[in-house]
Amino acid sequence: MKLTRNNTYTREEVHDILAPETHFTKNSGTWGLHGIVRVTDSDDFVFFSTEGAQQGTHRFDESITKDGVLSWQSQPRHHLDSKVIQTLIHHNEKTNNIYFFWRKTKKDKYTYLGKLAYISHDPYKECPVYFKWQIIDWENR
User: Fold this and answer.
1) Which ranges constitute the DSSP H helices of 1-141?
2) Helix, strand, coil percent content, the chain, rounded in steps of 5
3) What was the pLDDT predicted at 140?
4) 8-135 placed in CATH 2.30.280.10
5) How much is the pTM?
C-alpha cells in the first residue's frame, strides 16, 4: 500500500505505510494520538490536522489558501528553540518529507493532501510556533 493524494486514511493505515516496523496503539502513543509524528530514524514527519481542533485552552487556527499555502501551528508546548521546531524550520523538501493529512471533523478519516515545503515561521510567536507551508504540487481545489 502507498500514499495517494486526495485518498483518505486512518492513522493506523498511515502508520502501516510509513512505519510498519513499529507498534501502533489506537488513541495512544505517537502514531495513535500526536499531531506531529516523526517517521522512525529519519527527519521525515507526518502532520495530522483536524479543522478547528482544540488542545486544552488553545484552539488551532489552521487553514489552506486557494494556492495551497498552509497556515499551521505546532503543539502549544513547543518553543522556537525546541529540537523538533528547529528541525522543521530547517526542513529541506529535497532531502526529507513532511506528509500532510487533513480532516474536517474527528469522525472523518484523514485526507492526504501531499508533501510540504517550508515557507516561513513567525519568529515572535511560540507555544505554539506559527508556520507557513506550501503543499507541493497543489492543484487549486
Assistant:
1) 11-18, 29-33, 83-89
2) 15, 35, 55
3) 62
4) yes
5) 0.93
